[in-house]
Amino acid sequence: MEFFLQLLVNGISLGFLYALSALGFVMIFKSSSVLNFAHGELMAIGAFLFLALSAWADLPIILAFVLTLAGSFTLGFILEKFFLRPLIGEALIQVIMLTLGLALMFRGLLLFIFGGDIHDYPKFLPEALSLKWGAIQIPSVYVAAFIIGILFLILFGLFFKYSSQGIYMRSVADNQPAALSLGVHVRRVFALSWAIAALVCAMSGIVLGIINGINVHELSAIGLKVFPVVILGGLDSIGGAILGGIIIGLLETFTGGYVSSSLREIIPYIVLIFILMVKPYGLFGLVEIERV
Amino acid sequence: MKMRKLQFHPCGSFQTSYQQELTIFGTDFGRLWLGIGLLFLFGVIPFISSPYTLYILNSIGIYAIAAIGLNLLIGYTGQISLGHGAFFGVGAYTAAILATRGGVPFLLTVPIAGIVSAAVGMVFGLPSARLKHLYLCIATLAGQFIIEYVLVQWEGLTGGAEGLVVPSANLFGLDLGDDRAFFYVIFICFVLMALIAVNLIRTKIGRAFIAIRDNDRAAEGMGIPIFPYKLLSFAISSFYAGFAGALFAYYTMAITPEPFNLGLSIEYIAMIIIGGLGSIPGSIFGTVFIVGLNELLSHITEYLMNVGSSTGVALTIAPLREFVYGLAIVLFIIFEPKGLAEVWRIVRSNFRLWPFSY
Fold first, then answer.
1. Among B74, B139, B325, beta carbon nearest to A276
2. Model pTM above 0.80
3. A74 within 8 A of A183, measured Cβ to Cβ
4. Do A108 and B323 make contact, defined as CB atoms within 8 angstroms?
5. Between chain A and chain B, how many beta carbons pairs sit less than 8 Å apart?
């Protein structure tokens, strides 16, 4: 029973990490229907930027954090401006391939600069944040991840629902020509959504890095694991991404705990295939109905 | 007897019927050059090439077959697959297992490997082909990881991480172990498969593929059953991958699950993007480009390693290769989305229309 509870807690914490990393992905998909394969690499860039600023340049943690977020925001802006914008209106495969190409470029660069080893952040989270409940322990990083996850869920929910920029983003995602004709600045919306997504990626990269140490390969693998999460939750639903993340996290830890540890890595993808067969638009995804 | 009028390059588009547009060779010149090219390929190249060149050519031949298959799927049907490398691996393993465990002759293992790959491909294509292309892309990504896992974990059948040793190919008592003999096997297969692909595009099936790519809703409206055709395209593409994979297994003679990873799938996509989507010659150009790039990069790293060992700067090939791949893909997509095939067309028409190219 204790084992079960510990697995449950681990699964939910892992799930929150997945959910957190899926947020940026859903953000981009929601506003521009682009499947971003460079997602893991964007997280890695954020994580390494923070590492360079906090551990190597020895800046105070808060300053390093703010600078990292600002840097990622700018990176997202640049990415959109120079790489994605020429492709507005092009076939989907071109856009997907472009993000794949960018992913390779970033990974090559990061490996070149930082190598393939695991790096660690200096410890900075207060120990008081960790929870202890009977025999079950939740380390402080997970608590921090949980708080950040909830915070961003609420922020994004409010942003998409009430702010004018959020409403523009939804309108662009829904119907680009209609949004254009109603005076929405579509290009600015794209740029902004990439910038915000890169920022979110950086943040989730940092949180992942605090927990597991930062490693290029691992972060890009997590970037791909976003796909089962978002397919399960529904590609364009933020709430779905959170729930999908938790389900996938639970599945992984329980498979790892009870079945076999090698199956653990692959179970999300098996679930993905199964979901596509049964409920292709996921739990909360928008069902597109097309009739001829 | 009436002499057939020889056709030369017209300096414009003067086609008056669909037949003319669909011909493989617009001119007799093209036919002549292809004949000369084939003669050169089979009669001269194997005898003048060094073993190293022969090795590169053989790799190009094998990869080109799989790349043509992927182009049928992505370039002609507009469906994206991220699992082509894994299906290539399925073909390689099928051939290896049949040859080692069952003693099945070479002539049978290769097509069977193709069919098994097609069947495995359809398992992953089945749930996604009824949805729009985004989903096939994601499902094949999942397929890639699941197949990799099976190849490593099913040790009883695949030999696990240690892999399998494949006996050398044997055709009618003829041993095809050395590079030159296998060159003929690969390139005869290559020419046949390319010919099949080119002709497939001109049939009803090929036209249905293109209609689905251009506008799936319109295609459905015209009475093309989308789902069976998407699945068929996916099966054909996986067949090509499996076929090439079987040749690969016989050529390298020892296979492990390692090469058939996501990197290989991306490499294939890079080949057809750089070569040109929706162009069979493009797939071949792209393969030549990527295999050439690979060789060039490994020479550069070797050189840098030699320099580095004296200066103390270590450099590994992996980051450099990934970066250059990524850069090549990004540059081609932004500046020449139609790939090398389009560059080739422009160069050719410049020559043809010179000096009045307006």
1. B139
2. yes
3. no
4. yes
5. 129
